[in-house]
Amino acid sequence: MNEPQSAPIILVHGLFGFNQLSLAGVKVTEYFHLIPDALRRDGHVVPEPPKLNPGGSVAERAQDLKNYLEDANRGDVFQKQVHLIGHSLGGLDSRFMISKLGMADRVLSLTTIGTPHHGTPIANIVVNGNEPILNEVMENLGVDVKGLLDITTEALPPFNDDVPDADGVRYFSIGGRFSPPRILGIPQGLFGLTHDIIARTEQDNDGLVSVASATMGRPAWTPLDDWEENHPREVNWGINLVPTPHELADTSIVEKYRKLANQLAALK
Q: How are beta strands 26-30 and 20-23 bridged, if at all?
């Protein structure tokens, strides 16, 4: 086991996410599936992740994250600087909080995983309503179209101009890519169609965000190795959201987070 890390690791969930789901007070599952406990066993300080407005705007969710970090009731752990790991929209929330809400001095590093720094065509399609089949899929998933307005490819250029990187914060990004199974050339699975839509213009992607969009590409940012995973697998869920028995037994995603946490602990 590693020596306990002094800087807490805060795991920030994406759009329509949650910190954990409980039934009668008993934890049933969590957004970062099995990851917090694995990092704690390695000696890292990982508080219960924040619960952000699931379908809120980046500004609303960033305020939720700031409130979480400033909650005096959470004890001494929140008097320290932290490492943020943001999945998907959680990365944009974290960037906004650091830059626009006066929290740069509270953050040692931000690592984004599958974050649409340059937007995603899937948000464009759903917001504009020009892909009926995809819209039906999103509706069946309970997705509120309004929650996607901040991650269209039109919304992110002005966002990036308005949200500069903060001095003193270390920034890292990780993209994801996968190849959906096919039958007679037709992509299968929940993210097969979205994968091919993105691939038409942005090539490699995780089914919701391209590698190009997940890579920030500014001097302050260090791109880390891409993960060969689709969007839900990046947080240890199944390739089609519900994990199969094989995916439940697969520890490779947890190992990626353990490696990342150790890299963060070694930052000087």
A: antiparallel
CB atoms within 10 A of CB 182: 12
- 33 inside domain: yes
Residues 6+ apart with CB under 8 A from 193: 133, 134, 137, 187
In the numeric block, the tokens 């920034």 are attached to 171
Span 30-45, average pLDDT: 95
How many separate domains does the chain show? 1
- Does residue 29 form part of some domain? yes
Instruction: Assess if residue 2 is contained within a domain.
Output: no
Query: Residues 214, 112: contact at Cβ < 8 Å?
Result: yes
Q: What is the pLDDT of residues 182-218, one digit of tens each?
A: 999 999 999 999 999 999 999 999 999 999 999 999 9
The reply to whether 73 falls in a domain is yes
Positive or negative, the CA dihedral 229, 16, 50, 104 is positive
Q: What is the CATH number of the domain that holds 112?
A: 3.40.50.1820
Range of the structural domain that residue 258 is part of: 9-265
211 contacts: CB under 8 Å, gap ≥ 6: 175, 176, 177, 202, 203, 204, 205, 226
SS3 119: coil
